[in-house]
Design goal:
Elements lengths: L5 E7 L6 H7 L1 H5 L3 E6 L6 H7 L3 E4 L5 E3 L2 H11 L13 E3 L1 H10 L5 E4 L4 E6 L1 H9 L4 E10 L5 E13 L3 E4 L5 E4 L5 E3 L5 E5 L8 H13 L4 H13 L3 H13 L8
Parallel strand pairs: 1-2, 1-6, 2-3, 8-12, 8-13
Antiparallel strand pairs: 4-5, 6-9, 7-13, 8-9, 10-11
Helix pairs in contact: 7-8, 8-9
Length: 265
């Protein structure tokens, strides 16, 4: 059997309970010589031990990819994005994880140019290595795959869509932005859609996940990149989740006035 022509890259921190599901779903990939890159960003549980037990290539980076918010930055962000009377979103000295920088670092450590970039709370329901190898050999630069984001209490899918950022050739794409990054083409976009029988990824996030850091990361991203409509819309949604309705309405209105992405408007 031909070895996989792609590497799997995973950014982790304290994922000892979720990581085994992902790595188990990659059993055939690993048996065929597939490479799993694990970038650990400061775990204090057994994540690293779990990763090494699955023969992953582990990089311990500690706080390397964290950024400390300065006093002027926190003041400017809260002044710009928070409705008067609401609580501040961001605090001086708060540490924010630079996800884009970490993802680019992980990709550089891979032996293959083609990367599948997945999270520890996800798993492959289907993964046809030979078909994907064929697409890579044919010169494909980026793959779009079926993705299940949410499940009900019985495990049935409730939110399903096509995702085009989890598979890419690092020679033609990189992660732009730091806190809430997006995959960016360096020389023209080229996306090939895969059938769900070839690749299907499911997200199994637990109910106890704390989303407060996500709101803070989005606030910083919107402040640093005010013309990025994707960041703005995601920030508005997260404000709604956190019941900051007045601030959310103002952000959504700003997004609508940008005149882009009609489906989101």
């Amino acid at each position: 059997m031909t070895a996989p022509k792609f590497s799997a890259c995973v950014i982790v921190r304290n994922e000892e309970t979720r990581l085994p599901r992902l790595l188990d779903s990659l059993e055939n990939f690993r048996d065929r010589g597939g490479e799993v890159i694990i970038v650990d960003t400061g775990s204090n549980d057994k994540t690293i031990r779990v990763a090494r037990s699955f023969q992953c290539k582990v990089f311990e980076t500690g706080k390397k990819f964290y950024y400390k918010v300065s006093v002027p930055e926190a003041k400017a962000i809260n002044h710009t994005l928070v409705i008067p009377g609401d609580l501040p979103i961001i605090k001086p000295g708060q540490l924010l994880f630079q996800e884009g920088v970490a993802r680019n670092f992980a990709a550089t450590q891979a032996a293959n140019d083609f990367i599948t970039c997945v999270d520890a709370d996800e798993a492959f329901t289907s993964l046809d290595i030979d078909t994907i190898n064929g697409a890579i050999e044919a010169g494909c630069r980026r793959l779009e795959v079926d993705f299940i984001d949410q499940h009900d209490v019985h495990g049935n899918p409730t939110n399903r869509f096509w995702s085009s950022w989890r598979w890419y050739d690092r020679r033609f794409y990189h992660w732009a932005g730091t806190m809430h990054p997006k995959l960016t083409a360096d020389n023209g976009d080229d996306i090939v859609r895969l059938d769900p029988s070839t690749c299907l990824i499911e997200h199994w996030q637990g109910p106890s996940i704390n989303r407060s850091q996500y709101l803070v990361k989005l606030a910083y991203s919107v402040w640093a990149e005010p013309e990025d409509e994707r960041q703005l819309h995601a920030f508005g949604r997260e404000l709604m989740v956190n019941q900051r309705y007045r601030s959310a309405i103002r952000i959504f209105a700003r997004h609508v006035l940008m005149g882009r992405h009609s489906c989101e408007r």
